[in-house]
Amino acid sequence: MDLRSNFPVGSPRWATRRTQWKALGLSDEDVVKPKIAVVNSSSKLAPCFSHLDDIADHVVEAIREAGAVGFEIRTVAPTDFIMAAGGRGGYVLSSRDLLANDIEAAVEGGQLDGMICLASCDKTTPGQLMAAGRINVPTIVVPCGYQPCGVLDNGEPADIEEVFIKAGHVATGGITVEDLCTMSDRAIGGPGVCTGMGTANTMHIMAEALGMGLPGSAPVAANSPAMWENARASARTIVEAVLAQRRPRDILTPGAFRNAVAAVLAVSGSINSVKHLQAIAVESGVDVDISALFAELGREVGPLTAIRPSGPDSIEDLEAAGGALGVLSQLRPVLDLEAATIGGRTLGEVLQRAPEADAGIIRPLHEPRATHATIQILYGSLAPAGSIVKLSATERRQDSFEGPARVFEDAAEAISAINAHQVEAGNVLVLRGLGPSGTPGMGMASNVVFALNGAGLTGQVAVVTDGQLSGLVNQGIVVGEVKPEGALEGPLGLVHDGDRIRADIPARTVDLLVSGEELERRRLTQPGRESATTGGWLGVYARTVTPLERGATLVPDTAPALHHHYAKDS
């Protein structure tokens, strides 16, 4: 077959490419074989990525055994816990798009024939899939696994999620720094991503549901026999996909996105999946409104699993019970079974061969853990373009909240006010300026929520923010990713202390109870807001990022308005 990496053989340019590759030890036969990028977001900055170099070496060898040539390429490696320390947290989400650009530069610039993406921490999987949709070369995602965690002396699990949550309790005396450090010493026992159903494991499951990972690939323990076997099988599959020209835009259809949304709802996955799926759709040229899909499917799909922190079960339990493949099997009635997969079979054909799921861990569709969807999309006068609430899979919190606003422009200021008892029961804590444009890059609001929890105010104070939230936030009424964000023209930027705000989850509304005339007066008299950063990468990001409703991508917002595919009632 004609390979783009070999074009034009016999030309002066081919001679220069050939001599570069032969200098790496490739033979004359090698240089005309399919050339596969092994996309490695390796880093020794965090355990999420610390094992990827070994995996990359094995994948390159497996690609060679399958009759092609693998070239390892490196990208930025975004990790929330480490990189959120700088730029008000803005480097984390913005690095997702930097990663997609890293991939484009190497794969498109080098005219490679396909890529196999080693997926690890939260932003790597969506960034890789965004690049796949953009450059449209055959691509497969390989989940590289979750980390082992430890136990405390009392037998309670100690993992990074618990450390993250309990850190918000230090200032109010809920836990000492010494005890927190003891917990943190035992929280991580090896490489891999966080063990709960946070963003990373949600993204790995999402990739499989989209058809871009092999069936049965997620979740998986890092460096386990199952992970290594999937890596080898994925290497064989990507070579087959290149020869068959199975491209991402043939797989990433509206039906595939529907399947991914259903899977995220079923596993009570991270709310960050909403913006990441929207970003992948935008980069892939797919006209689909992900929020509308969550709103529609949320009426049909309750949580079928209850994995920590949404319930008592572990990620190991989910893997043993059938993983993403078992979840998809239980979801058959609501899935697009004609959706293609990277392996060449339709999803329906894949599920015909799937083993039966353990119904004790992965419930049938008609017997969910709860009747409510764990990701709720709220609209209203405060969030005309939408917002998100995450609910627990096992506990139903209060349905509604109304109170006066207490407005903060900075997370640290909000936490200080909480610790000084300046935020009172009945308040609605409004934290704005943490959106993609305002931070820039999107700041983390979770620490504020955990500070409220540590102060004993969970359920007594509601939170409304344009910032992003950890999947661990599933208590009290917390409305995240309010759109338009506070830095853009819209209601959130006009909220004053004392304004009454009402959130009603069953009605799926969040409203600012201020007259239109008063808001218009504020709009005309209130000074405009400026981005916190104008230089460096974050400055570039701030000047080019599109709104959250388009996934906060760097794709110019010139495409037609997104339609509500599949949405019966948005």
From TrEMBL:
Signal peptide feature range: none
Domain Dihydroxy-acid/6-phosphogluconate dehydratase C-terminal: 361-552
Keywords: 2Fe-2S, Amino-acid biosynthesis, Branched-chain amino acid biosynthesis, Iron, Iron-sulfur, Lyase, Metal-binding
Keyword Iron-sulfur: yes
Every Dihydroxy-acid/6-phosphogluconate dehydratase N-terminal domain range: 33-349
Pfam families assigned to the protein according to its UniProt record, in alphabetical order: ILV_EDD_C, ILVD_EDD_N
PROSITE patterns: ILVD_EDD_1
Family, as annotated: Belongs to the IlvD/Edd family.
Entries under PANTHER family matching the protein: D-XYLONATE DEHYDRATASE, D-XYLONATE DEHYDRATASE YAGF-RELATED
Name of this chain's protein: Dihydroxy-acid dehydratase
Natural source organism: Citricoccus alkalitolerans
